[in-house]
């Protein structure tokens, strides 16, 4: 029986497919395919089943529950994150009411605020909340839009006490005022910072002389 000849080493610029030592199949064809469901490309668009072209995507259970409890609020759900976390937008004037429901509803139980941050989109500001539940693995991202002319949103300290520190940071960096916060004051910038200075806004300009911008240890 003749021995299988060894393939000549590939040279720079050689566009021949790599081969295995067992057969002449290209290496990528010889490798086993991953099991179904082990990887989902977040950029890939799912095709509707046969006969269901144009069908509406399934509504996330969390979004469905919110719509059931607040039929007058659209919530403007958007596509979930790559790892499946649903995202909804809540009007600022309804946010405190919705926040209490998200925490207290037995079907939802989002009793833990893991993060809160501000975002500047030039024309408007946004506060983004990341919610979880201690007793389950559900997650939810909530976005609340606020105008730059009147950047105010209800504080959720009474719902999630840990929000106090996050809200102070969003106030300090973006100028968002959280009505009802028990101690809304700057947390990172020094107390003598001018009232209209918010360093993470896109329109912020540091007008200090360059020699004063470097922080010197005391």
Give an overview of the whole structure.
This protein has 218 residues and is of the alpha/beta class. The protein has a domain at 60-179: NADH:ubiquinone oxidoreductase Nqo5 subunit (Beta Polymerase, domain 2). 18% of the residues lie in helices and 17% in strands. The protein is built from 5 helices and 6 strands; from the N terminus they run H-H-E-H-E-E-E-E-H-E-H. It has helices at residues 27-30, 61-69, 95-104, 163-174, 210-213; strands spanning 87-89, 112-120, 124-132, 139-147, 152-154, 177-179. The strands form 2 sheets. It has a 4-stranded mixed sheet, with helices on one face. A two-stranded parallel ribbon has the order 5-6. The protein is elongated, with a radius of gyration of 26 Å. The protein starts with 26 loop residues before the first helix and ends in a 5-residue tail after the last helix.
Task: Describe this protein with a few key phrases.
218 residues, alpha/beta, Beta Polymerase, domain 2, four-stranded mixed beta sheet, two-stranded parallel ribbon, 5 helices, 6 strands, 18% helix, quinone binding, quinone, NAD
The dominant shape is: elongated
Task: Output the structural class.
Answer: alpha/beta
User: In order across it, which strands form the biggest sheet?
Assistant: 1-4-3-2
Number of strands: 6
* Euclidean distance between termini CA atoms: 82 Å
Radius of gyration: 26 Å
Q: What is the quaternary state of this protein?
A: single chain
CATH superfamily annotation of the domain at 60-179 = NADH:ubiquinone oxidoreductase Nqo5 subunit
Report the sheet-strand fraction: 15-25%
Biased composition (Basic and acidic residues): 13-27
Family: Belongs to the complex I 30 kDa subunit family.
Membrane topology: Peripheral membrane protein
Catalytic activity: a quinone + NADH + 5 H(+)(in) = a quinol + NAD(+) + 4 H(+)(out)
């Amino acid at each position: 029986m003749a021995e299988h000849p060894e393939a000549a080493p590939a040279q720079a610029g050689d566009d021949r497919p790599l081969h295995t030592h067992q057969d002449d199949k290209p290496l990528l064809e010889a490798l086993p395919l991953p099991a179904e469901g082990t990887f989902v490309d977040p950029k890939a668009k799912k095709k509707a089943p046969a006969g269901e072209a144009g069908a509406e995507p399934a509504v996330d259970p969390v979004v469905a529950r919110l719509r059931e409890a607040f039929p007058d609020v659209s919530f403007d759900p958007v596509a979930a994150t790559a790892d499946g976390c649903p995202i909804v937008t809540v009007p600022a004037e309804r946010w405190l009411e919705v926040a209490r429901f998200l925490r207290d509803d037995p079907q939802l139980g989002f009793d833990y605020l893991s993060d809160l941050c501000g975002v500047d989109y030039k024309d408007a500001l946004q506060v983004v909340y990341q919610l979880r539940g201690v007793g389950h693995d559900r997650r939810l991202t909530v976005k609340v839009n606020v105008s730059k002319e009147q950047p105010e949103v209800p504080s959720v300290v009474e719902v999630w006490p840990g929000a106090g520190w996050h809200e102070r940071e969003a106030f300090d960096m973006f100028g968002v005022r959280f009505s009802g916060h028990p101690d809304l004051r700057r947390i990172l910038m020094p107390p003598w910072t001018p009232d209209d200075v918010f360093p993470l806004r896109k329109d912020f300009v540091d007008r200090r002389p360059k020699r004063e911008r470097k922080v010197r240890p005391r």
